[in-house]
Amino acid sequence: MRASERAYRALREEILDGALEPGAALAEVEQANRLGVSRTPVREALARLEADGLATAASARVLQVSALDAASIRSLYELREALEGQASRLAATRREPERFTALRERIADAPALLDAGEEGLRAYYDAVDALDDEIESAAANPMLGAALRSVRLHSARVRRLARHHPERLRAAASEHLLIVDAIVAGDAALAAHATHVHLHLSLRHALASIEARHPDGHRVA
Amino acid sequence: MRASERAYRALREEILDGALEPGAALAEVEQANRLGVSRTPVREALARLEADGLATAASARVLQVSALDAASIRSLYELREALEGQASRLAATRREPERFTALRERIADAPALLDAGEEGLRAYYDAVDALDDEIESAAANPMLGAALRSVRLHSARVRRLARHHPERLRAAASEHLLIVDAIVAGDAALAAHATHVHLHLSLRHALASIEARHPDGHRVA
DNA sequence: CCCCGCCTTTATGTATACACTCCAGTTCAC
DNA sequence: GTGAACTGGAGTGTATACATAAAGGCGGGG
């Protein structure tokens, strides 16, 4: 694999994991030494991270890991509502219910996975992610797909802040099931509204989580 | 200004103008010679264009100017509906009507500009673009703003294909006026729906334009 | 006559050297 | 003592050289 690709994935993973905390400096030479490549591929990786919104130029010459505070999470969810709502709506419009039959069962069985420890949790998220992928694919819109993938990076980052709440995840599974059923039924309006409902509840949970972790809402930046 | 920034803007302008036609190859050395810089800044510029969706990797080692056919225009408008609809909705929700008072008059007067030749046409589009900027700013959502700016690049590209139809532009001004009024009135649903209507009519016109120009719908790729 | 394989060529991917700018620390003048 | 200017350093921005791999052409064989 290309060195720039490896550097990009390594840095991205560390940002999503929180190993590189919000506000951490991303200097070319430092990262090049740490990753064992030259500045050139690191430079390319940093440019991609900035385009993704995972890194932000604090000044003309210093790049930082982007903040992840309540305000940016709200912004993210407003954007997700627009994009994922449209994706669900389009997926319903395409009338290809057979794409979702296997996936529906997988989502229906997902709550049981929450009693299967760490591995089950991973399987739960795999099922949810598979649904996202299928909706994106069914929407059959490359530009929307690109926007969704970008947004999913940030969602993954929020997910790792708010993870591990079985009660919420059980409810989320029901919400996802309703979305799938609306798509299968070809009910575009319901698909969009169910997505809205899911995101609303998910946002509420995410904000409560970070509030619990950082009582002062401005400390996470 | 940095050489990479100049290279990016020059190439972007040529793609939007159509000087670089869809499918044209974007080779690093060729563009570096043409623009009078080394490969390094050109490389960075090409990476940004690819991230923007204005360039597409045809194979592992050849980058081309992205296609601009009926299918990609439809995709663009589905994405625009999601993003601009949400932006209008949020702008209405924020309840800052005073931001739009001057702009409303400007849009109301825009149709008269269509009788003022080339310069008037530019002024017309400046007014429309100013409205887009103000809605984006009023929506107060950095992530949505970034997505909107990306989409606006592609919209500009389509605009130059379908330009110069005074009748359509007069109608578009009325549609924009309705959007502004809905935002000023704080009517989020109407703002979103008026945006939907505007995009629907705009898409119909764009598709008719390229159909007239390329009777075979697949020739523009 | 066609197809497979090798070779050449040409492009990209990476490393490195150099130039330049911005920031900080220090020193001097007021 | 404070402020401003100068100087040093660290980091980015660009150019270039080298490594590498994919694509196309040519030749030989079937």
UniProtKB/TrEMBL annotation, chains A, B:
| Transferase in keyword set | no
- Coiled coil segments of this chain: none
Arranged from A to Z, the UniProt key words for this protein are: DNA-binding, Transcription, Transcription regulation
What's a Pfam family in this record?
A: GntR
Domain of life, per UniProt, equals Bacteria
Q: Cross-referenced Gene3D superfamilies, in alphabetical order?
A: GntR ligand-binding domain-like, Winged helix-like DNA-binding domain superfamily/Winged helix DNA-binding domain
Q: Which InterPro entries match?
A: GntR_C (IPR011711), TF_FadR/GntR_C (IPR008920), Tscrpt_reg_HTH_GntR (IPR000524), WH-like_DNA-bd_sf (IPR036388), WH_DNA-bd_sf (IPR036390)
Q: Where is the HTH gntR-type domain?
A: 1-68
PANTHER family according to UniProt: TRANSCRIPTIONAL REGULATOR, GNTR FAMILY (PTHR43537), TRANSCRIPTIONAL REGULATORY PROTEIN (PTHR43537:SF49)
Q: What is this protein called?
A: GntR family transcriptional regulator
